[in-house]
Amino acid sequence: MITKKITWVLGIAFLASTAYSCKKVLDVKPTNFVSDEAVFKDITLTSQFVTNIYSSLLSGFDRRDAGLGQDWSVGFGLLDMATDDIEAHASLNVNLVQAGDLNPTNFNFGIEMWQANYVLIRKANTLLARIDAVETTDAALKARLKAEARFLRAFGYAELVKAFGGVPLITTEQMVSDDLSVPRSSYDECMQFIVSECDAAAADLPLSYSDAELGRATKGAAMSLKARMLLYYASPLNNTANDSKRWADAASAAKAVMDLGVYDTHPDYYRLFMDKTGNREVIFAKKYARPGRTHETAWKLAMSIEAPSVIGGAWGAFHATQNFVDAYEMKDGKSITDPSGSYNKNNPYVNRDSRLDKSVLRNGSSWKGVTVETFEGGNANKPTNGDRTKTGYGLKKFIDEKYISADAVYQGGDNDWIYMRFAEILLIYAEAQNEVAGADGSVLAAINRVRARSGQPALTAMGQSQMREKIRNERRVELAFEEHRFFDVRRWKLGTTYFNQPVKRVKILKNADGSFTYTDENIENRGYKEHYNLLPIPQMELERNNKLVQNPGY
Amino acid sequence: MRRTIQIIVFLITSCFLQQAVAQNIAVNGKITDKTGTAIAGASVLLKGTTTATSSDADGNYRISIPEKGSVLVFSYVGTNRQEIVVGTNRTINVVLEDTENVLNDVVVVGYGTQRKASVTGSISTINSKEMLQSPVGDLSNTLAGRVAGVITKQPAGEPGSDAAQIYIRGNSTFGNSTMEPLFVVDGIVRGFRDFSQMDPNEIESVNILKDASSAAIFGVKGANGVVLVTTKRGKVGKLTASYTFNYGLSQVTRLPKNLGSYEYAVLFNEAKLNDNPNAAPEFSQERLDGFRSGSDRELYPNTDWMDLVLGGTAPRMQHNVSLSGGSEKTKYFTSLGYLNEDGLYKSLNYKRYNVRTNLDVQVTNTTRFSVDLSGRLENKTAPPSGGIFEHTLRNPPIFLGQYEDGRLASPGSYPNPLALVSPESGYNRTSGNYILTNFQLTQDIPGVKGLSVKGVMAFDRSFTYNKTWNTWVPLYVKNADGTYATTAPSKSSLSKNFGEAQGLEFQGQLNYENRFGKHGFSALALILQKENQNSGLFGSRNSYESSALELINFGPAENEVLSDNEDKTGLRSAAVRLNYDFDNKYFVQGSLRRDESENFAPNKRTGYFPAVSAGWLVTGEDFMKGVSAVDYLKIKGSYGKLGSDRIPSRFGYYNRYDLVPNNYPFGGTLSNGLVPGAIANPNVTWETSTKTDVGFETRLFKNLIGVDFTYFKEDRKDILANRSLSVPLSFGANLPTENIGRVTNKGIEVVLSHNNRISNDLSYYVSGNFTYAKNKILEAAEAINVPAGKRITGRPNGGYYGYKAIGIFKDAADFNNSPKTTAFLATSGPGDIKYEDLSGPNGTPDGVIDDFDVTYLGGGALPEIIYGISGGINYKGFEASFLFQGATRSQQYLTQNAAWAFYNGGRVTEEWLDRWTPDNADASLPRLSLNSNGNNYATSSFWLKDATYLRLKNVEVAYTFKTEFLAKLKLTGVRVYANGQNLFTLTDILNVDPENTSAIGWYYPQQKTFNFGLSVQF
Predict the structure, then answer these.
(1) What residues 35-74 of chain A have any CB closer than 8 A to a CB of chain B?
(2) Is A358 on the interface with B (CB under 8 A)?
(3) Do B182 and B222 form a contact (C-beta atoms < 8 A)?
(4) In this complex, do A99 and B851 lie within 8 Å of one another by their Cβ atoms?
(5) What is the distance between the alpha carbons of residues B287 and B295, in angstroms, rounded to a whole number?
(6) CA B786: distance to chain centroid?
(7) Which chain B positions have a beta carbon within 8 Å of A545's beta carbon?
(8) B896: which DSSP letter?
(9) Do residues B28 and B54 touch, judged by C-beta distance below 8 A?
(10) Cα–Cα distance between A502 and B154 in angstroms, integer?
(11) What's the burial of B569, exposed, middle or buried (CB within 10 Å: 0-12/13-18/19+)?
(12) Best mutation target, B671, B681, B852, to test chain A (most A CBs within 10 A)
C-alpha cells in the first residue's frame, strides 16, 4: 500500500516536473501562415505574392457603396452612378453625390479608391523592395514579376491621380516607425512617375501569355495605361495652356499600341464582356472565376423583374437614365434630335444603334425569354416591387444571361471587368489626334473602326470641333458604364454642362390596343460644382496626415 | 495503458465497496436544525481522522469511535459546525445552527479554498439553488442580477445560442481585445461554453473573483475577472438519488408593433407625396378600401410577419438524474442531464446531454485521489439560410405570406421568411461532443503538519461537426384563373465542417496550512503548463443537380470550396501565494504569478503578476465586544497587477503571409495567392491591468442586516489595439497589434441584505446589489487632427457619436431660420430633424450642420449602472422568491428597419402614427419619406435610445412535501415548483428588447419562460 502510494506521488511529481521543464510547450510555430523570411526566399511563394497584388485591383464590380469594411455593400455601385448616365437605387449612398453634394466624408467610392489603391501600391512596393534577394536561376521570371509589380503600382497611382490630382508618391515599403505623413506630390510629378514606370514595365513585359496565364500585365497593358494617362494629361482639366505637344504624345502613345498588332475589336459588343479566351479586344482586365472569385453584379445591379417562373431575385441598384438612352444614334448615324431623322418617340427603340440593346434592358427587351415590361404596372415596374425600375431602364451590359437563374444569381457572376480594351485605345487616338491635326484620315479610321463593329455607319470628313463632339458621344456610348464617363466629363471640364442637368425617366403607359405612350419626366435635379472635377481627399486621411492639403473648394 | 485501465476499473468498482473500519464504541443520535426539523446528509467526522458518516433522511446517524474523549465534528452546508467531545453518553443529539455569521463559511478561491472571514479580496458567490431557479439553457444567463459587479447583456434568445455577454466590473479594454472573463471549473481553466452549457444540477457554487488579489493567481489570464465553478461531490452517507423534471414554455419578451396594411398604405402614399408632391399615389383608393375592409385577404393581405415567424410558443424540457453518496474511502457524485429546447419555428431545436461523475478516493490516510469525468453532447438543428430576421423584420404587411391552402406565397421581390424557416428548406445541423477530465492526486506529507502536494492532470477532447443542406422551397403566385405558378427552382447546396480539439494541462501544487498559536499561515506554490491544439476541415459544393443524396461528392466539383486549418497554443506558469493572519483579526495575503505565453515573441513572453491584500476583522477586537449592534465588520483592501494576453490574431511578432487558395484567377483558373497579413510587431505583449480595491463587509443587529461596500479602480495599460486611428490609409498595410491603449475604470459595488426568521416556520429575506462602473479612454493613439467633438480620448469606451438632434422643424419659418445640413439641402424641409450647430471650421457655430457638428452623444451600450433586487419567503414547506434586475445609463442606437419607416421597402412600426405633418407640428417623429439617405437618417441622437430597464428576471414558488406517506414510498422529499425568467420588463425603448445589441434589429428575440418542475429525492 505504502509503496503504491509513493509510486503515485513520484509518478505525478515526475510527470509534472518533466512536463514543466520541457521547453517544447512554448515552442509553437505558426501552422496556418508563412513568414516573410520564407516568402522572399522562394520564387514560387514570391510569385504567389505577386498573384495577390492582382487581387487588390479595385474594379467596378467591387465598389463598396456603404464605405470601408462594409463588405456586404461590395458590388452595389458603379462609379458611373455619380454621372448623368445612371440613377441609383434610393437606398444607395451614392445618391448624395448624384444630388449634388460631394464632400470629404460622403463619397464612399472615393474614400475606397484612396484606400484600396494604396493597399495595392504597398504590396507592389514590398515586392520591389524584396525581390532582388530572392534566389532563383530564372532571371527572366524575376524580371517579369518585377515589371508586373511596377505596372500594377503605376496602375494604382493612375487611378488615384485621375480622381484626386497629385497624391503622396510612396515608392518604398514604409515601416510603422517611418514618418507616415507624406505630402502630396504635384500632378506633374505623379504623371511623370506613371509614364516612366509604364515605359520601364513595358520593356520587361511580354506581348502576350499562354491562355493559362491570361490576366497578367502585358507590354500592351503598360503602353495603354501610358496612352490613357497622357490623354488625361493633355485634357482641358490638366492642360490649361492647351499645350498641343501633350495631345501629340497621347496620340503617339495610342498609336504605338495600335501598331503592336496584337489587338482587335471583338465582333460582338455584348459577348465582348463575357468571352474570356480568344478575346483580342481585352488589354487589361480584373479576372473573376467561380467559385470564390465572383462578383454580385448579376443580382445587385441587375433589373428586378417579377417573372417568377424564370428569373431569380435581383435588387436593381442600377437604372439607366433617359438622358443616357437619348445619346444613342439612330442606326443610320443620325442623332435622335436630327429633324431629318426617323426617330419616333412612341416607338423609340427601333432602328437605334445596336449597342443600346446590348447595354440596357428597356420596355420590350427580351431577357431570359421574358419580355421586359417597364410600362406602368409591367413586370419590371409593379408597385409591389420595391426595387422596380426608376427610369424605365435596367442593366444588360456585363450581365451574362447564364447568371440569371435563382441559384446562379447568388453564386455570383465571373465575367471579367475590363479596364482597358482596344476600342478605348482607338478612341484615345482619335481624340488626341483630332486635337493635334483635326479630323484627319487616321482619326476617321480609328473612330470608324469602333463604330463598324456595332454596325454604325462610318463618319466622313468634318471639322475639328464637330469631330470632338462625335468622339465625346462615341465614348459615352461605346464605353458606357465602364467608369470612363465619371472622369471624361471632369477632364473635359464639362461637369456643369452634363452633371447639372435634371435626369429623366421615361413614363410608359400601355394603351388598350397594346401600343405604348412614352413620356419623359424629370426624376431628379442634379447638382455639380466646378471644384468637383477633383475628388476631395478623404477627411479621415486629412486627420491622420498633417501634411496633406485638401483640393480647392472643399 | 493497461495499467491505466486497471486503475480506472479499480476506481469504478471501489465506489461500490463499503469499506469496513475497525470499530470500538458506537455513538448515535439525531441531527436537527433549531426548528427541530431533521437534517439529512449532515456530516459527522471523527476529528483528526478520515472516519466519517452522515445523517440519514430522519437526521439519524451512527458512528464508531475508538475511545472516550474522541471529538466528533458535525457540519452541514449553511450551518455552523459543532465539535463535541464524546463522554459517557453514547447518544448525542445535535442542533446545528444556521450560519448567519459568515465567520466559518468556506469559499472557493483560485486553486484552493479559504475561510470567508479570512478573504481579503472581492469574491461574490452564487449558490446552486440560485443557479437552478432560472429556466435557461445557457448558464451565463443565471448570473444576471444575482451579485454585485457582474454586468450582463443577453443579445439574443435562440436555443443553444442565447449566451449573455459577461463584463466583470465593466469594460476596460478596446481594439483587438475582449472582456470575456476567465472560466475555471474545479481548478482547470475551461472555455466559456464549457461553463455555460453545464447542467446546473452539477454545480455546487459559482464564485466570481473580481479584484486583483483574488484573480492575480491567474496572472496573464486574470485581468477580466474569473468565474470559478465548483461542481458537486459525493458526501459520506448512503446513496441519495434525485430526479428533477422541468417543463417550460418560452415566448419572445417583446415584438415590435407593426402597422397593418391599411395604415401602411396610407402612410406610404403620404411618404411618396412628401418626396415628390407631383407623384401619383402608390395605393389607389380601391386598394386602400380593400386593405381596410379585409374582405379578400389574398388580394389585400394584412400579414403580420413578426407574429407569423416569431409569435409562437416554444416548449422546453429538462431532465436530470443524480446519484451521490459514499463511504469514508470512496465518495461519488454522478449526474445525467438532458435538455431539449424548441425554437419559435419548427426547424429549430437544441438538445444537450450532460454527464458528470466526480469520484473521490481516500487511497490511504494521507492520500486522496479524485477523478472528474464530464462530457456533453450538443445537437442543434437550425434553418440552413440566414436572413430570417432581416426579412421577417422588413417585409411589409401588404404582401401575402401564405395562401388559404397553406401554399407559401411569393411576397413581391423579397424572400418569404416562412420559406426560410420551413423544414423543407433544408437544415443546418451542428453537433459537438466534449469530453473533459480532471485527475487530482493529493498527498499529505507525513511529518509536516498541514503540508501536502498535489498533482493535477486535465485532458480534454472535443469533436464538432456541422452539415448544412440548403434546398429550394417553392413559392407560389396565384394566376387570374386560380391556378398557381411557382418560382424558378434553385439548386441545392451542401457544406460540411469537421473540427477537433484537444487540451492537456498539468499542475503541480504544494499546499501548506497551519496555525501556531495566534499566527495562522497558509501557502500555495503552483506550477502549470497547458497545451491546446485544434484542427478543422471544411468542404462545400453547390448547384446540386439532384437532391437525392446529401453528400459532398454528389455535387458538381466546379463550385467546390475546401479549406483546412490547424492551430496550437501553449502556456507555462508558476505561482506562489502566502496568507498570514494574526489572531484571526488581521489578515494579509500576497501572491505572485509568472506566465509565459507563446502569443508573444520569446523575449516578450514572460510576465510577473504580483498582488497584495489586507483585511482587518474589526469585530474581532475587544473594544467591539460592547458594540452589540455590530456582529461582524471587516475592512479590506487589495492592490495588484494582472494581465490579458487575448490577442485574436496570434504570432503578431511575425510578418505574416496567409496562403489563400483561389486568390486570383489567371486564365480562368484560380491560383493560390500569398496575402500579407498584419506587419510584424516584435514588441507586442500582454495588457497590464492594475487594480485597486477597498471596502468593508458588515452584519448588524443580530445578523438581521448586512451591508457590503467596495470601491474599485482599474488602470489598464498597453491595451492591444492598432493605430488605425492615426496611421494614414496611404500606409497601405494591415497594422500590427500594438500595446497602445489605456483605459481607467472606476466604480462601486453595494450589497444590502436583510434576513429574518420570524418564527420557526416563517422566514424571509430581501437583498439588493448595485454596481456602478464608469470607464474613460486615456489613450487610443488617435489622429492629431480629429475634431474635438469626435475624439474618443477622454470619453467612455464604446461611446456614440453623431449630430445632436434638437427636435423637428415645425414649419417653414423654423426650417428657414435654423442651421441645416449641407448634405441634404435639396431634399430637406419642415418636418425633418433639426440638429444643433455646435461648431465650424473656426471652432464656432457657422450656421451649417456638417462634420464639425458631430459630437459625443453618450457612453454606449454597456450599462454604467446595473442592479438586482431579490427576496424570498419560506413558510413551512412553502417558498417563494423573486429577482428583479435592472440597468441604466446605457443606450441603443437603432437604425434601418429597427427604427425607420419604409426602410429598404420595409415595414412601419406603430409609433410612426405620430409623425410630423403640417397639422401635427409637434409630432414625436419626423415626416415620412421613402428615401433613407436624407437629413433624418444621419447618425444623430434622434435614433439613440435610452435602454434603461427593470425586469422581473426570475420568480419561483415552490412547495416541498415531507410526509410519512412519502417516507413509506422511500421518498425523502418531493418538491414541486413553478418559476419563470424575464417575466415582465419595464422600459421606454420601443420595439426591441432593452438588452438587444443589434442596431438593425436582426436577432432572435430574448425569451420569457414559464416553467414547471418537480424534484424528487430518494
Answers:
(1) 35-36, 38-39, 45, 48-49, 51-52, 54-55
(2) no
(3) yes
(4) no
(5) 11
(6) 36
(7) 728, 730
(8) G
(9) no
(10) 50
(11) middle
(12) B671
* Nearest chain A Cα distance for residue B485, angstroms: 7
Interface test with B, best of A4, A9, A522 (most B CBs within 10 A): A9
Q: How many CA atoms lie within 13 A of B544 on its CB side?
A: 20
Mean pLDDT by 10 residues, chain A (554 residues): 54 55 71 85 94 96 91 92 94 87 90 97 97 93 97 98 98 93 97 98 96 96 98 97 96 98 96 94 95 87 76 82 97 94 94 97 92 92 82 94 74 92 98 97 97 96 96 98 97 95 95 95 91 96 94 94
Cβ atoms of A422 and A265 within 8 Å: the answer is yes
Q: List Cα–Cα distances, B170 to A189, A491, B216, B721, B904, in angstroms.
A: 53, 55, 18, 18, 36
- On whether any CB of chain B is under 8 Å from the CB of A465, the answer is no
Q: For residues B529 and A88, give the distance between their C-alpha atoms in angstroms, rounded to a whole number.
A: 59
What is the pLDDT confidence band of residue B414, given thresholds at 50, 70 and 90?
Answer: confident
Which B positions 842-871 lie with beta carbon below 8 A of chain A? 850-851
Q: What sign does the dihedral B836-B838-B844-B848 (CA atoms) show?
A: negative
User: pLDDT tens for residues B580-630?
Assistant: 999 989 999 999 999 998 888 889 989 999 999 999 999 989 898 888 899
Do residues B129 and B883 touch, judged by C-beta distance below 8 A?
no
Closest approach of B728 to chain A, Cα-based (Å): 5
Length of chain A: 554
CA distance A528 to B526: 72
B305 touches chain A (CB under 8 A): no
Q: What is the pLDDT of residue B81?
A: 76
Q: Which residue of A has its CA nearest to B567?
A: A31
Q: What is the mean pLDDT of chain B?
A: 90
Taking CB atoms and an 8 Å cutoff, what residues of chain A touch B598?
25-28
Q: Is A471 helix (H, G, I), strand (E, B) or coil?
A: helix
Angle, vertex CA B241, rays to CA B236 and CA B245, nearest 5: 145
Cα B69–B71–B73 angle (5° rounding)? 160
Say how many CA atoms lie within 13 Å of A266 toward its Cβ.
20
Say how many CB pairs under 8 Å bridge A and B.
325
Please tell me the distance from the alpha carbon of residue B70 to that of residue B55, in angstroms, as a whole number: 19
Using an 8 Å Cβ cutoff, are A550 and A535 in contact? no
B93 in reach of chain A (CB within 8 A) = no
Q: Supply the DSSP symbol for B594.
A: E
Which amino acid appears at position B443 of this protein? Answer: Q
pLDDT digits (tens, 9 = 90+) for B281-310: 889 999 999 999 999 999 999 999 999 999
First-last CA distance in chain A: 89
Give me B581's grid cell: 493572519
Q: What residue has cell string 437618417?
A: B937
Q: What is the per-residue DSSP string for A153-173?
A: HHHHHHHHHHHHSS-----S-
In tens, the pLDDT along A447-482 reads 999 999 999 999 999 999 999 999 999 999 999 999
| pTM of the predicted structure, to 2 decimals | 0.87
Identity of the amino acid at A415: N
Give tens-digit pLDDT for B898-928: 999 998 889 999 999 999 999 999 999 999 9
Cis bond leading into A291, ω under 30°?
yes
| Joined grid coordinates for residue B35 | 426548528
At residue B551 the predicted structure's pLDDT band, cuts being 50, 70 and 90, is: very high
**Dihedral sign (CA B404, B409, B412, B415):** positive
- Sorted by sequence, the CB contacts under 8 Å of residue A439 that are 6+ apart come out as A459, A461, A462, A463, A464, A466, A467
Query: pLDDT band for position B372 (50/70/90)?
Result: very high
